[in-house]
Every structure is written in structure tokens, then in C-alpha cells.
Specification:
Layout (H helix, E strand, L loop, with lengths): L2 H7 L1 H13 L8 H13 L4 E3 L5 E5 L5 E8 L26 H17 L6 E8 L7 H7 L8 E12 L3 E2 L3 E4 L1 E10 L3 E2 L9 H19 L6 E10 L5 E2 L2 E10 L2 H21 L3 E5 L8 E3 L1 H11 L5 H4 L11 H5 L4 E9 L19 H17 L4
Parallel strand pairs: 3-4, 3-5, 5-15
Antiparallel strand pairs: 1-2, 2-4, 6-15, 7-14, 8-12, 8-13, 9-11, 10-12
Helix pairs in contact: 1-11, 2-4, 4-11, 6-7, 8-11
The protein binds nickel (II) ion.
Length: 388
């Protein structure tokens, strides 16, 4: 299989496919039309498939005994109103493929089209996982619960990011994306007249102190060599300007690259919240459920193997220099079960135009990212099945 030559032949159809999916985005667990459109493409390619419930689909390539590997694409859009003005912009108001998942679908279908031609030479099996609900971190678990990871030896996936320049891809080993925790702290005090603070317990003041105290976790408590984020994204307190607030709610997220750091920060947050509340005479109730997914950590052996293979297609410069990121990915839930590698694909235009970030209403990416994403899937498969 000559990867360059093969991808060259499907360039136009890849772009069209991506634009087709871009028009009809659907939010997590509602990807009914998307699933139907993927099925139609699989049928055209004569690739057998099974449907995931409630949405999503898994295709099957290769019939021989041997290694079983999975390629994964997430398929959901976001509740974001599209502002790109592109001719193929979303036709579903208030919903948009603002994270490039349309590109992931097209790239996996493109790779499937090429691999189908070489099915006889695949000494094993390939599962094509079109996973729903990545944005709410529910889809990977759904695939696992429905048994589609059973018997799979390894998994590979890609993500397009507009803040990485197109032409750059990354297949690094180790931590690549963060664990995502979500906490809610409710402070309860005693409300009353704004002019009588001595008779009240003001939760606005306690909440303000708590936000500041939480900042010291990263700056003063965590080993400076560790990477982590503590963000209080939402804070609400009080009902009127002349009433002392008796309740405040803080909501935030923690991002970490190791389970140890994650657990440590969780303990500090609980301790600081309780102690700060106490200092102001208030009470803290902390809701801190288990993280949506662990940090995404690429298997070293596989990452090196894929990297070696990638050197035949990409130059060293294209393969280096993309650091890990604090975003989360439920691909990490597959890696809890089996070894896998998740690659980053640059989608940012390099012609001087503004690149809006993933999840922005003006997010878009350079079409070349599609070709690189297909190439990465093929590079990965070639690293597994050497006969190809
Ligand atoms: Ni995404």
C-alpha cells in the first residue's frame, strides 16, 4: 500500500464527505442522521457493520485470525451556533461541528475506503468505531459496555486542532491530554439586611476568599514540576444588592495528567473549601464526583512503533513540537482497558488568516488536515500489519 498515492486519489471525495457531515451536526446521543449517513457510506464500501445504541456504528474490516485493532472517530457536534458563513455551514440551527468531528468521520471513512482494497492482505481484523457522545464523555463507555472493545488488542484515534498549524502531526508517547474533574461547592451562611452584617454570615465574602484560596493549590501546594489547572468557572451568590447572601455556589474544573495529582488536588480542594467556610462562619457542601475520564496517556511501545512508521510519510519537522494539552478526551477510557495511541492533527491555516479555536462558532480547519488524518490511520495500520 503506497499511502501517499492512495490518499492522493481520494482528496476531492474526502473534502466533499467532510462538508456533507458538516451540514448536519447533531449533539451527543442524538446523532441519528449522522449514524445513518455513515451507514450509507459503509454500505457503498461493502463494509459490514453493527449499530451502537442509541447512536453510532461499528464497521468490520479483515476476516483473518490475527491481531484485532480498532480505529476510532467521534461523531457528535456541539450546541454552538455556527458563525462561519461557509457555503456548507450547519443546517441545524444552534448546532455545529465545532470540534472537527466531521473531519474525523470523513478521515476514518477515507481510510476505510483505502483499506477495503487491501482487505486480503490484512492479517487480522480492524474495527472502525464511529463513536457518539465524546463531548459529554459518555460515548467510549457506551462502546465498551456494548462489547465492541472485547477482543481488541490496540486502539488508535486522531483529533484535529485549529491551534496546531496544518502540516504538524503528533504521535508522542506519555501524557497527552488531561483528566477532567468537575466540582461544585455550595456555601451556606445566613442572609439578612445589607446594613446588618453582624447579624448575618455573608457567603459572598466567603466565596470570594475561597476563589482566592483555591488559587494557592497550583501556585503554593503543587510541586511546580507538575502540570495542572484549577478553574472556578462559575460563581453565583446572593439575590439583591441590599441583601447579604446566605448561599453561594462555585463550580469549577480540575485538569491533571496523573491520577496521583488528581487525587491530591481533590483532597486540597475539599480541605480548603471546608476550612475557608469555617473561617467565615459558613458551611461548605462539596460535590466532587469521580472524573469523567482519566488523563490520556499514549502507550510508549505503540507510539514509538507508529512514529517509526510515520517517518516514511512525514518529515521530522512535521512530527515534532506539539506539546500536551489541558483539554480532555474520553478516548482515555479505552486506554484504561487496552493500550492505545491518540494522535493530534494540525488544522490551523498558515496563510495569516485567523484560526478560531475548537468549540468556537467560527471554528474551521484547513482541508489538508483531512489528508493527514487519513494518512495517520493508514500509518498506524501499516505499523500493525507489516504485509500491507
Ligand atoms: Ni473534539
Amino acid at each position: 500500500m503506497d499511502i501517499r498515492q492512495e490518499v492522493e486519489q481520494i482528496l476531492e471525495s474526502l473534502i466533499q464527505l467532510r462538508q456533507k457531515f458538516h451540514r448536519y451536526p447533531e449533539v451527543a446521543l442524538h446523532e441519528t442522521l449522522t449514524t445513518q449517513m455513515i451507514i450509507e457510506e459503509l454500505q457503498k464500501l461493502r463494509i459490514p457493520y453493527e449499530c451502537l445504541k442509541p447512536t453510532g456504528v461499528v464497521g468490520f474490516l479483515g476476516m483473518k485470525e490475527g491481531r484485532v485493532v480498532a480505529l476510532r472517530a467521534d461523531i457528535d457536534g456541539l450546541a454552538v451556533a455556527e458563525e462561519t458563513g461557509l457555503p456548507f455551514a450547519s443546517e441545524h440551527p444552534g448546532c455545529m461541528h465545532a470540534c472537527g468531528h466531521d473531519g474525523h468521520i470523513a478521515a476514518l471513512l477515507g481510510a476505510a475506503k483505502i483499506l477495503k482494497k487491501y482487505e486480503e492482505e490484512i492479517d487480522g481484523q480492524i474495527r472502525l468505531i464511529f463513536q457518539p457522545a465524546e463531548e459529554i464523555s459518555a460515548g467510549a463507555d457506551l462502546v465498551i459496555e456494548q462489547g465492541y472493545l472485547n477482543g481488541v488488542d490496540e486502539i488508535f484515534g486522531v483529533h484535529i486542532f485549529s491551534d496546531i498549524p496544518v502540516d504538524c502531526v503528533s504521535i508522542k508517547a506519555g501524557p497527552r491530554m488531561a483528566a477532567t474533574d468537575h466540582f461544585t461547592i455550595t456555601l451556606t451562611g445566613k442572609s439578612g439586611h445589607a446594613a446588618k452584617p453582624h447579624q448575618c454570615v455573608d457567603t459572598t465574602v466567603a466565596a470570594a476568599a475561597l476563589v482566592m484560596n483555591l488559587q494557592t493549590i497550583i501556585s503554593r501546594r503543587l510541586n511546580p514540576i507538575e502540570d495542572a489547572v484549577v478553574t472556578v468557572g462559575r460563581l453565583s451568590s446572593g439575590t439583591a444588592y441590599n441583601v447579604i447572601s446566605g448561599q453561594a455556589v462555585l463550580e469549577g474544573t480540575v485538569r491533571t495528567f496523573s491520577v496521583e495529582t488528581e487525587n491530591q488536588i481533590k483532597k486540597w480542594i475539599i480541605q480548603i473549601a471546608e476550612d475557608t467556610a469555617k473561617l467565615y462562619g459558613a458551611k461548605a457542601d462539596i460535590d466532587y464526583p469521580e472524573s469523567l475520564h482519566p488523563p490520556l496517556i499514549n502507550n510508549e511501545r505503540i507510539a514509538l512503533r507508529v512514529y517509526d512508521q510515520a517517518k516514511e510519510i512525514f518529515c521530522e519537522e512535521q512530527l515534532s513540537g506539539v506539546p500536551k494539552i489541558m483539554l480532555g478526551e474520553d478516548f482515555a477510557n479505552y486506554q484504561k482497558k487496552i493500550p492505545g495511541v491518540f494522535a493530534f492533527v494540525g488544522g490551523g491555516r498558515t496563510d495569516g488568516s485567523v484560526n478560531y479555536l475548537n468549540h468556537h462558532g467560527k471554528f474551521d480547519f484547513d482541508d489538508k488536515a483531512l489528508f493527514y488524518a487519513v494518512k495517520l490511520h493508514l500509518v498506524y495500520i501499516k505499523s500493525v500489519f507489516e504485509k500491507l
